[in-house]
Amino acid sequence: MIEFLQYGFMQRAFIAGILTALLCAVIGVFLVLRRMSLIGDGLAHISFGGIAAGMLFGIYPLLSALVFSVLAALGIQKLKRMKVYGDAAIAIFFSFGLSIGVVIVSMAHGFNADLFSYLFGSILAVSGADILLVLVVGIATLAMLYLFYKELFYITFDEESARAAGIPVERLNNLLVVLTAITVVLSLRIVGILLVSSFIVIPASTALLFSRGFRQAIAVSALIAVASVILGLVLAYYFDLAAGGAIVLVLVAAFASGLLIKNMHAG
CA-based Rg of the chain, rounded to a whole angstrom? Predict the structure, then answer.
């Protein structure tokens, strides 16, 4: 048996990391192709306010972050329908959620260290409750993506034609951003608020360098994300590195290698 797998905290880290990687990899392909990559970073920072509020009022932080993020995701869509540019809508809620977190931190004392773990991730401190949340909510999210795969595929490539065909585009857009909010919150324990968008965007962007079809892109993205979690955790264990940062560095290295290989073949 591999040495580090003898420890319960490493077993939980691998389970949570792989489950979250699969979820991020799948939804990331939809977001990158729809040029919505920024929303992941925005929702991650919005969740900071939810985490701070949860700690202040004695609520499980990921649940309060989930409420904040889902409401903000729907709010962003509402502003977009009111003709506010998408990046401006994200920035408005980004600022609101972040400012709430900062105010709460200034009011309360004693949980700054816990907040720090959410900023940078603490996959090695994943608890049984975290695993259960990732497992139940993650599987439900993947099930929703599978159930509405054809419709989401349609609006990803041709939203106007989908609308003309009678597909409920606005509802599906709401569904996608809500699922993104859920994915972001589930990823906070793994890579933290400051790195979560890279966990969603980089595997998908790397996969799209080579993939010739949508399903293939999802499969390759999932493979890259899972492999990066495994390699990142191994490197973190043996070289005493921050696990979230190590995972993202592996992802960046994979993207850079893919881009180099593609350019070499193109040349």
Answer: 18
